[in-house]
Amino acid sequence: MRVIAAPGHRVPMEKDPFKYIEGNEGVEVPDTSYYRRRLAAEELLVPEKQSRPGAKQVAKETAE
User: Fold this and answer.
1) Are 42 and 6 in contact (CB under 8 A)?
2) What count of other Cβ atoms lies within 10 Å of the Cβ of residue 34?
3) What is the pTM of this model?
4) H or E stretch including 34?
5) Residues 6 or more apart from 61 whose CB is under 8 A from it?
């Protein structure tokens, strides 16, 4: 699955805690309980264009 880090978060990779998921660059990760927990905690997000039905989506910011 493809994920991005939530704004202000730097999430360690499951197998290498010295590598991080950060910024808006999408990273392909395995569908494991580690990444599912990070998604549930909203530290990781599923990019809007890649999301599946029922998955949380990245909130669109509206400019006012």
Assistant:
1) yes
2) 14
3) 0.71
4) helix 33-40
5) none
CB–CB of 47/58 below 8 Å? Answer: yes
Q: Which two tokens stand for residue 46?
A: 């599923």
Could you give phi then psi for residue 39, rounded to 5 degrees? -65, -45
Supply the DSSP symbol for 14. S
CB 4 within 8 A of CB 21: yes
Q: Which two tokens stand for residue 56?
A: 């949380």
Residue 63 corresponds to which amino acid? A
Residue 26 is inside which H or E element, if any? none
Give the Cα separation of 23 and 57 in Å (integer): 16
Q: How is the chain split into domains, by residue range?
A: 2-50
Q: What is the mean pLDDT of each run of 10 residues along the chain (64 residues)?
A: 94 95 91 96 86 49 44
